What does this fold into?
Amino acid sequence: MRPKTSQALNLKALLLAVFLAFVLLFVLRSRLSSSSQENTSSPILQTFSTAKTFNAIKESNTENCSLGCDKLPRSLAQALLHYATSTITPQQTLKEISVTAKILEKKSPCNFLVFGLGHDSLMWSSLNHGGRTVFLEEDEAWIEQIRRRFPMLESYHVTYDSKVNQADNLMDVGSGPECTAIGDPKYSVCQLALKGLPNEVYEIKWDLIMVDAPTGYHEEAPGRMTAIYTAGMMARNKEEGETDVFVHDVNRVVEDKFSMAFLCQQYMKKQEGRLRHFRIPSHRDSLERPFCPE
It folds into this structure.
């Protein structure tokens, strides 16, 4: 999730515009809600003249502002300042980010699990304001660095025992009955299931899952085989409803093949650039449902 070089300035400007629009919408919605409550709960104002009514509302707004009712949340303000002054932009393009942002716009506040911790993490947490966003990262030193800068982000260290050069063998393993059986990945006997995640990761019912880690660009890297499989099984094992799962870097062989095999091509809603969006329904209501639709 960490870019190796800075992206173009126009991408940064576009990202800031999207984020500013989100912040303005948040403030306007708060102000409209506050104004509506004042008008319906204060019938005495209706007996005043137009001038007195205006003054009363003006004074009321001043008092409310002093109480911070319309104040921009600290987390959003910090995110805005960070992206306005940073020379580093997220690795995903604006079009790729917009795919997930549109789903967050509909579902937030919600539970959002992200494999990876990077320069876009503060953005994802802010776009899910009021919800719970959890980041899973393989690099402990990087976690500490991010925690010093953004202590409000919830992140956990994760270890992977797979390697990219094992991908072909793991693909064959994944077709076995122990890997297609629906159940909690924590207790799965499938070699692809991640079993060492924090307990709350297994307990929370995730609305969105983003797979943008671990490292997967060389043969000795952990690769995203187990992360993709586990994300799909978490979605299937959910008690009810659907889970939106996103996989980045599908231009690479592992991300391409494993997302299609374990998140299922039939569940794919969209591909934008290097990002794929899948919507996976719960399989708990019908254990006879095939792993992938036929």
Remarks:
- Confidence is low (pLDDT under 50) at residues 4-8, 32-54.
- Residues 9-41 form the longest helix (33 residues).
- The first strand starts at residue 111 and ends at 115.
- The two ends are 33 Å apart (CA to CA).
